[in-house]
Amino acid sequence: GEDVEQSLFLSVREGDSSVINCTYTDSSSTYLYWYKQEPGAGLQLLTYIFSNMDMKQDQRLTVLLNKKDKHLSLRIADTQTGDSAIYFCAERGGYSSASKIIFGSGTRLSIRP
Amino acid sequence: NAGVTQTPKFQVLKTGQSMTLQCAQDMNHNSMYWYRQDPGMGLRLIYYSASEGTTDKGEVPNGYNVSRLNKREFSLRLESAAPSQTSVYFCAISNPAYEQYFGPGTRLTVT
After folding, report:
1. What does the buried/exposed string (b/e) look like for A65-78 if buried means 16 or more CB atoms within 10 Å of the residue's CB?
2. What is the rounded distance in angstroms from the CA atom of residue B111 to the CA atom of residue B13?
3. Which of B100, B43, B83, B68 lies closest to A104, judged by CA?
4. Among B45, B75, B50, B41, which residue's Cα sits nearest to residue B62?
5. Which end of chain B is less enclosed by CB atoms within 10 A, N or C?
6. pLDDT tens for residues B6-23?
């Protein structure tokens, strides 16, 4: 079946950039998402990119998509302590409400002072 | 998580007991979903509803039933809880732009 993979942990120094990587297998992906989950909370949609785009920037967040390699990344500029959370990559394989969304296992981002 | 509410926030059940998890939205969207989240794993889809009156199985439907009572509400029922159903359950809605918004979750423990 389709799969989405992420590394489990990332540690960065406060003020540096964080780059969280994700790979997926579904060649018919239409939308690719990044979610943030803080402890005890639900998932918060951070940003998403259409599969026909290479890059999307939204304030401190930059999403890069390499469709040929099926690789997605999320860059957080000037990482702050409030960015500590688990980040989930997800991909949707179609254009209907019934299209399946596959989530990665999440990357736990921790910030060093 | 504004717009999607879930009750209860926490629940402890004994094996074999039943319960219903409630989800309601005030965003007037057609699509609603139930996921479970287990440690070290991403979210897995249990059931979804593309519109009022329709429901379909997701990746892990066994042991669960759902009801789409109206456009606002989508409930998940465990008829006979098992320890393997210990998890955090999230309800989500999807707008026409395919952005998904999640509720705060229900943490369920089955002993």
Report:
1. beeeebebbbbbee
2. 6
3. B43
4. B45
5. C
6. 999 999 999 999 999 999
Indicate the pairing of strand A107-112 with strand A9-13: parallel
Q: What residue has token string 């990587």? A: A21
Asked whether the beta carbons of B19 and B110 are under 8 A apart, the reply is no
* CB contact (8 A) between residue B40 and residue A33: no
pLDDT of residue B2: 55
Three-class SS state of B58: coil
Q: Which of B93, B13, B84, B90 is nearest to B52 (CA)?
A: B93
Put simply, the chain B residues between 73 and 102 with a CB less than 8 A from any chain A CB are: 90, 92, 94, 98-102
Q: Per-residue pLDDT tens for A30-88?
A: 899 999 999 888 899 999 999 899 999 999 999 999 999 999 999 999 999 999 999 99
Beta-sheet strands, E only, within chain A:
4-6, 9-13, 18-24, 31-37, 43-50, 55-58, 61-66, 71-76, 85-92, 101-103, 107-112
Q: Is the pLDDT of residue B1 over 50?
A: no
Residue B98 vs residue A111, higher pLDDT: A111
B63-85 core/surface letters (b: 16 or more CB in 10 A; e: else): ebebebeeebebbbebeebeeeb
A43 and chain B in contact, CB less than 8 A: yes
Q: Are A35 and A42 in contact (CB under 8 A)?
A: no
Nearest CA in chain A to B10: A40
